[in-house]
Amino acid sequence: MNTAAFAAGAYRRLATIGSGADAASAAGGAAQPAGQSFGSLVEQALDTVADSAKRADTQALAAAQGKANLVDVVTAVAESQTAVQALIGVRDRVIQAYQQIMQMPI
Q1: Chain centroid to CA 51: how far?
Q2: Binning pLDDT at 50, 70 and 90, where does residue 1 land?
Q3: What is the pLDDT of residues 50-64, one digit of tens each?
Q4: Which end of the chain has fewer CB within 10 Å, C or N?
Q5: What single string gives the DSSP state of each residue in 26-66?
Q6: Separation between Cα atoms, residue 98 and residue 94, nearest integer Å
Q7: Rounded to two decimals, what is the model's pTM?
Q8: What interhelical angle do 3-17 and 38-64 show, nearest 10?
Q9: 71-98 confidence digits (pLDDT tens)
Q10: How does DSSP classify residue 20?
Q11: In the chain, where are the structural domains located?
């Protein structure tokens, strides 16, 4: 089991969620939204983590019934854990950025 490969896969999935929202308009030097709000990006990230957890649960139940390979179960659980850890890391960075903004002088 290669933890680095699991982490890379989870980060790749999270990166594809926001790939269309990083476009900036050159006119006027201001960034224009690419049609997707921050709220929808967060919702997609949460859905991705939830889907990963559902796959892990499904694999665990199948293993308990003797219908799944143990390697598949461990892989699904590790991917779910990595996705949750990545989401927690993003959450922590958002909170940190918010706190820095709130400390800025007006």
Answers
A1: 11
A2: very low
A3: 999 999 999 999 999
A4: C
A5: -GGG-----S--HHHHHHHHHHHHHHHHHHHHHHHHHHHTT
A6: 6
A7: 0.61
A8: 140
A9: 999 999 999 999 999 999 989 999 999 9
A10: G
A11: 3-13+36-102
